[in-house]
């Protein structure tokens, strides 16, 4: 249950901040944002604030911000439509009632002759065959009501496509950027909460029941040498331990000025199939500093980003196979392990996931933010946008491909974490 709660909180936060980035920059550009959604599928919860409906949906596999103009609007007033009009105090059309007109306090019913709800914001029509044709100005925030469902009209200047190339680029890029920023904040908070690891070979917290505690080592001990080899920093100490799983090591220790000798046998853990490393259950010593925490957060964010790109490169070059990719099942398993390590490990795992989400979304694949940015780059190079229908088709195909990839990755995870373990 702790794992499930951790996943809901972590993934919910990652998706929320990602979509919040899109929402903030889109609203700043003046784009009408119809919906801010966490998840996909049927709505579980919804409320409306200002122009935007905020929803939580059934399938927790991401989220979206529905901006006006990105998809077909579904607002259409063809000549011959018989509609009801409700006016605001200024005399402009506030609501356009398409059907079920008897349910509303309609002020006028007309037959539409012509309607422009994007540019001129006007409806022309007549009440009956004998009546003169009249034109009615439409409020820029008027509601189009069909089957009791209200949808705010989107004048062209409120649509995604009307904005400058830079405004659209920033609105798309803001999602991944927010995930990187979130990772930085998590790692900075982690260092404020846990302390900044120092480079010296001095022991910090020790895990109960592990080799360090069993051998009599204590928090604050400074390791001078291992098997007679001098140890100058924490990385060298870790290297000695990792390279000798299950082998007895002799530690020379400085404990408050007193030199002691301790025999330590590192435990073993599998890092890859057939590859093991040693560990003793010790963490580095830490120090507390606000400026140091900011620096630590930035450095760790950069390090994690760099390592993810390295792994991605090895995947592309074939050094690692696609069986190394993980999906929802893998995330659940790794989150379960992180949960066992407590809040500090969960925080670091959340930062890793946040950066992964940012980088994955920036890949130049259809249906991802990177794919949309690629189309904007092509628009900048050719001087005009690509046909929205063609772009939409490409994104649809890309989305289908991503769903197929998700199934393959999930099957790999099931093999990796369940079937292969049973076989062993």
Automatic annotation (TrEMBL):
GO cellular component: membrane
Example GO biological process: proteolysis
Lineage: Bacteria, Bacillati, Bacillota, Bacilli, Bacillales
UniProt keyword list: Hydrolase, Membrane, Metal-binding, Metalloprotease, Protease, Transmembrane, Transmembrane helix, Zinc
The protein's required cofactors: Zn(2+)
Membrane topology designation: Multi-pass membrane protein
Protein family according to the UniProt entry: Belongs to the peptidase M50B family.
Membrane spanning residue stretches: 170-193, 392-411
Official protein name in the record: Zinc metalloprotease
